[in-house]
From TrEMBL:
Reported cofactor(s): pyridoxal 5'-phosphate
Organism lineage: Bacteria, Pseudomonadati, Pseudomonadota, Gammaproteobacteria, Enterobacterales
Organism: Musicola paradisiaca (strain Ech703)
Name of this protein: Histidinol-phosphate aminotransferase
GO biological process, one term: L-histidine biosynthetic process
Transcription found in the keyword field: no
Keyword Amino-acid biosynthesis: yes
Amino acid sequence: MSIENLARENVRRLTPYQSARRLGGNGDVWLNANEFPQAPEYSLTLHTLNRYPECQPAQVIARYAAYAGVTPEQVLVSRGADEGIELLIRAFCEPGKDAILFCPPTYGMYAVSAETFGVERRIAQSTADWQLDVASIERQLDNVKLIYICSPNNPTGNLVNQDDLRRVLALARGRAVVAIDEAYIEFCPQASTVNWLADYPHLVILRTLSKAFALAGLRCGFTLANADVIQLLLKVIAPYPLSLPVADIAAQALSDAGIAQMRRNVAEVRENRRWLEEALNNLDGVDTVFASESNYLLVRFADSATVFKTLWDQGIILRDQNKQPGLAGCLRITIGNRYECERVITALQALSATTA
Ligand code: PMP
């Protein structure tokens, strides 16, 4: 008997998440993972590693709570927002019985995490303007324990209407947890639903240091929810989810100086996004540049396959979104620094000159 046959059936069938790093490429302009282009400088203040870390490092929790405007009891810290996505399934979904629901086109890890645990996946495809199809969500709610909604949505970049979010929260009350993925919320902080926690015992908000805080390599994310939800998640989290160096640097990133730096990062991204959007709109071969509230632009090209391959061969790595429902011809471009944005435009100009 092969080892393969010993594995759980759904693991044998599973296609793992195709993360940007797994997809590879040989680039010098990395615009496929929605990272921040510059690395902040941090040094460790702690130099001993013989002791286990705290499960939930108190200083990190206190600082994130102050930053987000919640109490420490409403915060859980984990190995990226991705671990928060998974913990929710572990705590709320019975394999083979319960389901999760999400709204494509959207972030891929909700589906992959559910599949890993053998939990059914329901799909309420977004409307043509990438808003929630609330009627479709309502029709499919039987046995759904968890609804994931990403706002700003990856990869489309738009915000989900707050009235629709409230309608879904009303439908789900007493039946399902609604997890709003705010991984990109620092780019449009006014849109956060964090102030709704008092109104909805079943609201969960996912956050991360990977985007505006420029710390994707640190692997640190947060789940915000009412205290009883956090207590449930603490039952299923690993005993020591954050290493001591991670907690050390996360606390620094959440100091006043760290938060001020994050706000400068956001201003720079917004300015470069405006520049890139305008330059793309002036190019032949660009059908649509979709409005974005985040650190990436979704762009529909007349010939996205050629654009993707030509830029790839020049070391400019974008993210192909063709396979997502409704996104034929679309590529996602992370907002890099100005030089990186210029490299994209120069390469596209050269391409349209050869194909004109
Ligand atoms: N949610 C969304 C919408 C994302 O785009 C990402 C990053 N790929 C994550 C969650 C996961 O973030 P983290 O790096 O904190 O695991």
